[in-house]
Amino acid sequence: MPEHRRAVRLVVNAPAVVESIGQVPMTLHPNLAAVFRRVDADESTVGRRFPAVVRDLSTNGAFISGAQLPLLTRVAVKFDVRGIGPVDAIGWVLWQRTADCQLPGPQGNVPLPQGFGVLFESIPLETRTAIAQHING
After folding, report:
1. Would you list the domain boundaries of the chain?
2. Could you report the per-residue pLDDT of 39-84, keeping only the tens digit for each?
3. Contacts of 52 (CB under 8 A, 6+ apart)
4. Is the pTM of this model over 0.85?
5. Which CATH architecture describes the domain 10-24+36-136?
6. Which residues pair with residue 119 across a beta bridge?
7. From CA 41, how far away is CA 75, in angstroms rounded?
């Protein structure tokens, strides 16, 4: 299958812990509050913590197979990748695959597991650099 994503991915199989963390409350001056808009994180699962598996990883985000979380859930993700080390990131659920499925490929069907895509909001620079170096060999 052709690759259409902007960031090159590293295929991994890293056990992870995912926690829905919500957003930090923000107090704005009334003048700013009158004109300020932001995307709010889904709060319905705050505090939910569960095991999952990171299946692919880039400097910008990851695909995580496991229990479903609503779109725009803000999450903390902790996992370890051989050659990179521990990864401790905060991100946003931007897409979901609600069930396992298969896509036809040149060598047969390609299985795709249920899960969700996370865009990293915060990840240490040294971790992001290690991911990039690992991907680029």
Report:
1. 10-24+36-136
2. 999 999 999 999 999 999 999 999 999 999 999 999 999 999 998 9
3. 15, 16, 17, 18, 64, 65, 66, 67, 115
4. yes
5. Beta Barrel (2.40)
6. 61, 92
7. 10
